[in-house]
Amino acid sequence: MKVLVVGNGGREHALAWKIGRSSRVDRVFVAPGNAGTAIDCENVAVASDDIAGLVKFAKSNEIDITVVGPEIPLCMGVVDAFETEGLRVFGPSKAAAQLEGSKVFCKNVLRSADVPTADFHEFRDASSAERFVNERYSETPDDVPLVVKADGLAAGKGAIVCNTRDEVLEAIDQIARRREFGSAGDRMIIEDRMSGTEASILAITDGRTILTLPPAEDHKRAHDNDAGPNTGGMGAYCPTPSIDEKTLSWVDEHVLVPTVHVMKRQRNPFRGILYAGLMLTPQGPRVLEYNVRFGDPECQPLLFRLKTDLIDVIEATVDRRLDQIGPLEWDNRPSICVVMASEGYPTAYEKGRVIRGLEEAAQLPDVKVFHAGTTHDAGQNVVTNGGRVLGVTAMGDSISAAKLQAYKAVKCIRWDGAWCRKDISDKAIATT
Ligand code: GLY
After folding, report:
1. CA distance readout (Å), 197 to 128, 194, 301
2. CB 86 within 8 A of CB 55
3. Torsion of Cα atoms, 397 then 400 then 402 then 408, to 10°
4. How many angstroms separate the CA atoms of 336 and 360, rounded?
5. Ligand 1 centroid vs 371 CA: distance in angstroms?
6. Is the entire prediction scored with pTM above 0.90?
7. What are phi and psi of 341, to 5 degrees?
8. Which helix (H) or strand (E) holds 127?
9. What distance, in Å, lies between the first and last C-alpha atoms of the chain?
10. Which domain CATH number covers 148?
């Protein structure tokens, strides 16, 4: 069969690589892909938000199934466009993707499903939001633990965590007056800030059956010991001991099942990857947000451990027969992914630096280097083309062994300005 993967990051390289390992799959295309997907699969020069171009490619190349990686095409309605043309596609519809595309929609679903989450208020203009904050906190201006969120997609920057009234008023101004997130700020929510440890739990669902995946942990901050600015994710490992079996089944019962059920009851069934961003508070897990796709880089160590044929699971989801797929099989060994980044990331960085040592790293056992921001230059060298460049992924008999192997591979790879965090998975090592 022929499969098309949409996207160009490390997540999509991992998806395409894993799909390509199926004996049932003859060809994997990636649109637009990166240098890694060009090596393992076949790249197609169609952007991931060019919905008409993707449909045209799938039709003219008789693609059997399309798998969509990123949230933007999902929120734009790529799944609806494919289904209208009778094409099989994995991911939620535009209406269901609002779980990530609209914070207001997500909060209303959580409320209807009685899923634990922070209390919130919705606003359409700055003045009413400011009035609410000033009235509610008239006596405690210096301790205002709130989160102000732009309703729409804002490249991961639309949730502003505040401590004081000035910070809250500044966040409202940024979203609703200065319009820094454009139309994503047409509406906003203000919710109570929660404290605890953040964790994410991902599941695959066909709208009825839910298969919960082993928990993976991301490292969002740029520098070691969770210091520095937020990034797209500097590394991840799987499984994480921060979510035990008891918490996992609690989240299944009190978060995932009611959410999927309410979506179905509202005649807006959710099919695809449901990613619950959680805060583990002293009162129990609370949902911070939903994403409607695999996390990046969590996807890389997760799929590296998956033994079940991914295309079987994807097809069963699309055909709404996920109940016929047995429990997913996983390699017992833990895995970790270390992101190697460009100098300057997460702010400005240069592109086009030649990457060396990839072949050497690929020869190490239990290692796979997933590409993210890479491309080929005119001389066919693999060069940097983004902030997060590579996701060096490895497995080992323990988390420490997996870490050792991943950093051994990192050492083989070099380009001008390459850097990475040195402490990926240390939290897990400390608790095991
Ligand atoms: N790693 C976080 C995300 O993909 O949103």
Report:
1. 32, 10, 21
2. no
3. -130
4. 19
5. 16
6. yes
7. -120, 165
8. helix 126-136
9. 42
10. 3.30.1490
Distance 425 CA to ligand 1 centre (A): 16
Please write the tens of the pLDDT for every residue from 171-216.
Answer: 999 999 999 999 999 999 999 999 988 888 999 999 999 999 999 9
Sorted by sequence, the CB contacts under 8 Å of residue 140 that are 6+ apart come out as: none
Please tell me the residue having the least CA distance from ligand 1 atom 5: 295
Which residue CA neighbors atom 4 of ligand 1 most closely? 295
For residues 219 and 230, what is the distance between their CA atoms, to the nearest angstrom? 9
Burial class (CB in 10 A: 0-12, 13-18, 19+), 330: middle
Q: Which domain holds residue 293?
A: 197-324
Distance of CA 296 from the midpoint of ligand 1 (Å): 5
Per-residue pLDDT of 136-160, as tens digits, reads 888 876 789 999 999 999 987 889 9
Per the structure, the count of domains in the chain is: 4
| Token couple for 290 | 């939903």
Give domain status of residue 117, yes or no: no
CB 16 within 8 A of CB 1: no
Query: Which one-letter amino acid corresponds to residue 151?
Result: D
Q: Select from 270, 297, 324 the last residue of a domain.
A: 324
Tens digit of each residue's pLDDT (9 = 90 or more) over 257-273:
999 999 999 999 999 99
Q: Which of 298, 299, 302, 388 to mutate to test the pocket of ligand 1 (most atoms within 8 A of CB)?
A: 298
How far apart are alpha carbons 111 and 227 in whole angstroms?
34
Residues 6+ apart with CB under 8 A from 128: none
Written as one letter, the residue type at 305 is R
On whether residue 284 sits in a domain, the answer given is yes
Residue 126 makes CB contacts below 8 A (sequence gap 6+) with 172, 173, 175, 176, 177
